[in-house]
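example protein:
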Amino acid sequence: MSQPTISPDMTINDLLQWAVLQRERLRKDANAERASEPALVLAQAAKLTEEVGELQAEILGHAGYQRKSKNKVFDADSMGAELADVTICVAILAVAHNIDLGKALARKMVKVESRYSEPESR
């Protein structure tokens, strides 16, 4: 597999190619017991939960609901980093389950759009 494009203009396929490489790195770094398929998937799902929690903390910080003792700057860069962490976890999970994330997103977007193209019932 060739090295995926890593740039602000990368495609979903570039992200998924990178996720394949990252998943293999995680497998190599894990001990034999944790490198099994179910263990890797469960660990990645737990990691996604962790990252969503960190994103929620960012959202609360941006809204002014985090306590001052956190001593953290909540800005577009920190929010972007947390969104990226969540996206990376999702991509790794998609790869683990052989899900074409581009197709899944397109199907979901069509479904969402159809909600707005239907006449409103009165």
Notes: The two ends are 54 Å apart (CA to CA).
